[in-house]
Amino acid sequence: MNEQSTIDVAAGAETIAQKLSGFVEGLQGATIPGAARERARHLILDAVGIALASTQYDFAHRTLSALREFGEGPGEVIGYGARLPLRDAVMMNGFLVHGLDYDDTHTRGVIHATASCFPTAMGMAAAENLSGRDLLTSYIAGMEVATRLGSVAKGGFHQTGFHPTGLVGAFACALIAGKLRGLTAKQLSHAQGIALSMGSGSLEFLQDGAWTKRIHPGWAGVCGITAATLARNGFQGPRETYEGRFGLYASHLGPLLEACDLSIATEGLGEIWEVTQVAVKPLPACHFTHACADSAIALRNEHGLRPEMIEHVRALIPGEVVKTVCEPVRNKQRPQNSYDAQFSIPFAVASGLVHGRFGLSELEPEILNDPETLSIARKVDYEVDPNSAFPKYYSGEVIVKLKDGRELRHREHMNRGASDRPLSSAEIIAKFRENAAMALSASAVDRIEAAVLGLDDGMSARSLSAILAGRG
């Protein structure tokens, strides 16, 4: 590591895990600014809407059927009214939030933190019969940790084939579960060390659109709850969880460790609230595709483009995301299923150019197999963007060469939803209502919206859990 990323962990020095533990143990709701708490409630509302929409898909039904084989329990499953053991319910709820790849992203950390932090906070707070305010405070604590731990790697986890949402999420969930169960700072440090042997998440799904990415955030919650419970009972974990010789970054990043800045893991704790920097997705696909999809839509609308006019298309994207949304090229130009399409620059651009949209309806089989859309996707090549702002923004540019010789281009340097171009609270509510309406009546949608936005107003965690499950 370079000098900036080296942290002294000599005998007696405070480790990253200890600093994070002290922050989480001492965090009180009253010390969190109102703007951060308001944003957190809207992030949770967004997650709930996506979870409800996910209940309408086959992947959710099959996953719930599998988890039901482990028996029933006190945990509530969003939108289904099913009861599962606590950890299985957390896993299922994380799966639902992340199921459509429509959930929020912390841009610098390249992590979908809400998908693991919220289900863990709700499940544990309900199990301990705590308040909605306790739930919200622990959720924010987890978000502050997950986003910083992800940011340390500077996008490196994706380059080595790991998905930080599952990998890093386990540590945040261990702290959430531990805080809600009253663990001491020492126990919280052990919980993080234990989670080091549990967190996981492979990007191999990118090869064929497999479903495995969807389980990563829920599995992070399972790991976190397990680690915290072991620590509560005296189980000991490694001390140098993050900076150690075989700690998180050394074991998962290889030579990219040199680019890390470990100081990011604890900078600004209690002063800078990363939860306010989380980007809410305007499109149901990998955030890396959004700028190019929006650029394609803008070109179509501005110039009245039709498929038969297009000779060739170039998409300029950050070099750090090529492995995720551009390769292997043949797979990306001909997605095998909707999940494959959500991680495809060629398909996102083709959808924008042909249909003027890239929403859930464009991920249905009739569009995935549409000859016109696939014909344009085959004409889309990628180039590394020399002016990329990654990871602050997920920049993108589309350049269309027409058969009449003209060349048209549009650039989205700052992707919609980014921290400096955020969706408003009203826009988040509208997105929630659109998604939730796929599964519920208008009156049920109204009730859930009021419950989530009223988490600070006397709502109990058990009441919220029951309402989201359709029991309350």
TrEMBL record:
Pfam assignment, any one: MmgE_PrpD_C
MmgE/PrpD C-terminal domain residues: 284-456
Ranges for domain MmgE/PrpD N-terminal: 18-254
Gene Ontology terms for molecular function: lyase activity
InterPro entries for this protein: MmgE/PrpD_sf, MmgE/PrpD_sf_1, MmgE/PrpD_sf_2, MmgE_PrpD, MmgE_PrpD_C, MmgE_PrpD_N
The family this protein is said to belong to: Belongs to the PrpD family.
Protein name: MmgE/PrpD family protein
